Amino acid sequence: MSLLRTKPIAALIAQSEGTHGLKRVLGPMNLIALGIGAIIGTGIFVLTGQAAAANSGPAIVLSMLVAGVVSTLAALCYAEFASTVPVAGSAYTYAYATLGEFVAWAIGWDLILEYALGAATVAVGWSGNVVSLLGDIGIRIPAAISAAPGTVITLADGSTVTAVLNLPAVLISLFVTWLLVRGVRESANVNAVVVVIKVAIILLIIAAGSMFIRHENYTPFIPPNTGTFGEFGWSGIIRGAAVIFFAYIGFDAVSTAAQEARHPQRDMPRGILGSLAVCTLLYIAVSAVMVGLVPYRDLGGPAPMAVAIDHARTAAAGTTWEAVMRLLAPLVKIGIVAGLTSTMVVQMMAQPRIFMSMAQDGLLPAWAGRIHPKYRTPHLTTMATGVIVALASGFTSISVLGNLVSIGTLMAFVIVSLGVLVLRRTQPALIRPFRTPWVPAVPIASAVVSFALMLSLPAATWERLAIWMVVGCGIYFLYSRRHSRLGPGV
Fold this sequence. Notes:
490 residues, Amino acid/polyamine transporter I, two-stranded antiparallel sheet, globular
């Protein structure tokens, strides 16, 4: 029964309010900006094009809608937990309070796939866009050091090069690590400025790109299935939704900042739901413009948004818009790079706080829970996260990373949704500043649909998840279970 032991919510809150805790410096607009900063990133700037090219075609718009609905169901569950249990740890902490220690460990281990590998995925997308941007001004990054090992890159002269390392991805990972060690206020301020820039860029893309849409690119809107599940047709729309689900994961990253929010019971739901609402509307609009500008099969590279803008610039040649598009193209690419940077900031801020919570519960070594005496940040776990992200982004392809992040995120959503049902039954009198509406319908729907999207992901992704969870279970039974602060004699 020790596997099912839960941590009282009162104990979780008391622990978070200790004298050596994190600084409570974030207001509602900071939280909404953090959510937008995490949501608008690789998903829309990179994975959307790849999902359109391989799965959905122009119907990527429907995939976006499906993923947005699923995210909303999960966001309502997260909002209740974040206001009721306003501590760092996100789904890990919620599971510990409701479903037991082993489930909490499993989801904490799983969240590494979401946040650390999520940041690695963003770093790979950042690298692709930086290489494209620098190429526009005549600076060529050698292909051999700008992609995952084994990636075959075709050069302008038709020759090919096999990459050995994605160096730009490694460098941005280390820079963000340094920024996050310095402090959450500084990181949040940088993020807020960049969020304004990238939202403005997306609005520019929608406004300017819509003028050069070629309507034949929308035909057929739902390409016929190739005979393989997930390759176009209706199954492709579902597979596309599962792949680009990565694009929506930022709202739950907001919940990891609960211990740094000034008024978490009130502001956490606002940050979670507000950021998701803004981004869903932007996503649907910008994905429609992207597949209208470019034939969907041409969007499968690491920088599809840049490809779309280049098409718009070509289409504007000889028109009154030529000068505008010539100026807009580099601005958009700069905005994309800045936007991807802010996404990394939020995701790499979330992961160390998961590690910190697990260490405070005894499930990880004590050093992982230490707070920097000056900056008041979990500096050791931040640096460990930076190393993980740098290695993953430098040596792994974006498609493998993206699918792992999606399945990890969806698994977290399933557990949080079930946790709402359990907590409603076991502690009905608990004060809930925000209550998920239409319980049990919304949590059940969230869990069922999230699991269905997990099933639509490739078998290879499930195999990697299984291996990852087996490793995690081994660590739990060899170390964490014996060192848990809820264990006998601890």
